[in-house]
């Protein structure tokens, strides 16, 4: 059981690392770094298979019940989300390779992607942490970071749709897809958080629950500026 | 166990129907039909929850082994894919609503989306059929339809990237995202097919396996024109 949790945590760590490097490669048109992400993607896929096999053998050999059963079932669902996070980082790396030696992004939107990348990396690290600690309050905070990602994504679209956009359609298509990859990466992290909350509380939180939980967390948190 | 399979089949049927209607709404800027898809999406989400609960209670109460265990584990994975197919149909319907009374698509690309919609609907129906029959040869043929989808998607991008594209960046962004939704819908159908093949054969097929299997199927098939 611990082994499955460790494998999932390791996988989340690798997906986060892949997105960190893919973002850096994207922003700096760094082909070597993009190739590293692409070359190391198999590690995530292998871990994914290992997780599935581990979950299956736990069910087959131990027929777990109650909380343990919930852990294994959630594990099976979580592995699919982390696998997808890795695949989205791979897509970013491949876009960088496709346009090399050119930059994929017009300079105008670099700031958006630097920030979306920062949030994605933070979400990857949080996902790993949550899988290890099973802290439902931390899991609920993922939703907050996801909202920050959604905001950036929306702003990015207003930049794209602006009549002043002067980088052409091809760049707009790239920016649209890349923006989507970051947004989906965040969605999957939130989904992992929901699953962990389910694990601990036995209930899958809705968006409403997230909002309520966040308000509670916000009230509990002493912000640095309040001290 | 049969109940879980039935629920999954029903869910696949609804996801296929949603994509069929969403495509029609998209092509005809039919707001009422788009609203139907949006309004009925909850049915798919509800079935998704029912499937997860059913799978969990099967594991908890029956501690299935061997083939039955594999069925339940695959069911847990498959429900996530079908859920996503429904969500992608929902995205198409929402794009139609967002631009109404305008058409989302420039007329130039209508043909692509009509054809991608046709393939998506066929994939939805095939997914339902495969869940019911567990026919691995039929599941392998999903891959072929997915390749047809990928080809269309690639062509669509060459149209977008063409210097002659005269519909502006906003339309290009819509077309990019919509194209991606159809492509992902197909990917999820293929993933369900892979899971069913795993169920029957105990082995997850790779892309290589798919190709080999298809060649075998092609050899076995007597085409109408050969008769």
TrEMBL record, chains A, B:
Domain of life: Bacteria
InterPro entries tied to this protein: PhoU, PhoU-like_sf, PhoU_dom
This protein's record includes keyword Cytoplasm: yes
Domain PhoU per the UniProt entry, residue ranges: 9-95, 114-196
Record localization: Cytoplasm
Annotated GO biological process: intracellular phosphate ion homeostasis; negative regulation of phosphate metabolic process; phosphate ion transport
Gene Ontology cellular component terms for the protein in this record: cytoplasm
Key words of the record: Cytoplasm, Phosphate transport, Transport
Family: Belongs to the PhoU family.
Function: Plays a role in the regulation of phosphate uptake.
Subunit details: Homodimer.
PANTHER family to which the protein is assigned, alphabetical: PHOSPHATE-SPECIFIC TRANSPORT SYSTEM ACCESSORY PROTEIN PHOU (PTHR42930)
Record-given protein name: Phosphate-specific transport system accessory protein PhoU
Native source organism of the sequence: Rhodococcus ruber BKS 20-38
């Amino acid at each position: 059981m611990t082994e499955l949790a460790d494998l999932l945590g390791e996988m989340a760590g690798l997906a986060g690392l892949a997105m960190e490097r893919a973002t850096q490669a994207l922003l700096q048109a760094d082909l070597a770094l993009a190739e590293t992400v692409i070359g190391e993607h198999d590690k995530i896929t292998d871990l994914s298979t290992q997780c599935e096999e581990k979950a299956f053998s736990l069910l087959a050999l131990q027929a777990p019940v109650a909380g343990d059963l919930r852990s294994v079932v959630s594990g099976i669902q979580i592995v699919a989300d982390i696998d997808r996070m890795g695949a989205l980082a791979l897509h970013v790396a491949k876009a960088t390779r496709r346009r090399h030696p050119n930059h994929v992004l017009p300079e105008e939107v670099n700031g958006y992607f630097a920030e979306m990348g920062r949030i994605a990396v933070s979400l990857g690290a949080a996902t790993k942490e949550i899988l290890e600690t099973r802290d439902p309050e931390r899991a609920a905070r993922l939703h907050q970071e996801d909202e920050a990602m959604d905001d950036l994504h929306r702003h990015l679209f207003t930049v794209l749709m602006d009549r002043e956009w002067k980088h052409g359609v091809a760049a707009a298509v790239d920016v649209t897809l890349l923006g989507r990859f970051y947004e989906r990466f965040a969605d999957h992290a939130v989904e992992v958080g929901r699953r962990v909350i389910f694990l601990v509380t036995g209930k899958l939180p809705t968006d409403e629950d997230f909002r309520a939980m966040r308000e509670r967390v916000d009230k509990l948190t002493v912000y640095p500026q309040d001290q």
